[in-house]
Task: inverse folding
């Protein structure tokens, strides 16, 4: 079980589709993260939100658009993705000195 | 963030202690050592962290050398469910919430029956 919930668990989308990944936590954490993980590789940081404001963007292409509508929710909007964007997308949250808590991810396949 | 070096893979017999080493020779005084693991098809799971003293919790023990340039994660009685990729990460102790966690390549631990 994880306290960070990600939906959907799996997503298949075409290169012309628009879709969104969702992440939710109710631990009162004010920092939320998106990571991307390719097969057999470690997770790579994409975005960090702190108090609902984007604080870090690791030079991610604009076809990935993050959104933090409130302190419990984090979205990742996807548009015009490429097959090489297929990966496991992980959400995490933290507050203060607590460790990052990760969700189990959304496995995305772009066809 | 300081870089970490871990062996690519290790095997351990079920019921024996698993000792996973990590080198972090460039660690700074304000950086903690964190350990996470990732079981196949799941998100990374926090295990333990420490600054300079040895730490123990219900999952594992963390031994940090006196010069803080290396550490060892110990799983005292490994089970098949401990098979996972184990990541050693150094992370600064900064104020505020938005502290990054940068993953290295990790160690694939396989627990053998």
Result:
């Amino acid at each position: 079980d994880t306290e960070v919930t990600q939906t959907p668990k799996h997503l298949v989308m075409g290169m012309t589709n628009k879709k969104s990944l969702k992440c939710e936590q109710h631990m009162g954490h004010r920092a939320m993260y998106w990571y991307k993980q390719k097969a057999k590789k470690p997770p790579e940081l994409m975005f960090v939100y702190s108090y609902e404001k984007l604080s870090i963007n690791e030079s991610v292409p604009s076809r990935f658009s993050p959104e933090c509508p409130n302190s419990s929710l984090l979205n990742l909007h996807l548009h015009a993705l490429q097959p090489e964007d297929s990966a496991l997308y992980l959400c995490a949250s933290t507050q203060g000195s607590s460790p990052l808590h990760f969700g189990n991810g959304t496995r995305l396949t772009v066809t | 963030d300081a870089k970490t070096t871990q062996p690519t893979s290790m095997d351990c017999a079920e019921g024996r202690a698993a000792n996973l080493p990590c080198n972090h020779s460039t660690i700074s005084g304000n950086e903690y050592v964190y350990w996470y693991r990732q079981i196949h098809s799941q998100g990374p799971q926090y295990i333990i962290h420490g600054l300079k003293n040895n730490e123990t919790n219900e999952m594992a023990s963390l031994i940090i050398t006196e010069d803080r340039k290396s550490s060892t994660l110990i799983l005292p009685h490994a089970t098949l469910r401990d098979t996972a990729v184990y990541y050693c990460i150094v992370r600064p102790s900064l104020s505020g919430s938005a502290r990054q966690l940068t993953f290295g390549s990790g160690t694939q631990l396989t627990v053998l029956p």
DSSP finds no helices and eleven strands in chain A. The mean pLDDT of chain A is 94. The interface with chain B takes residues 2, 4, 29-31, 33, 42-45, 48-51, 55-56, 90, 92, 94-97, 99-105, 107 of chain A (CB under 8 Å).
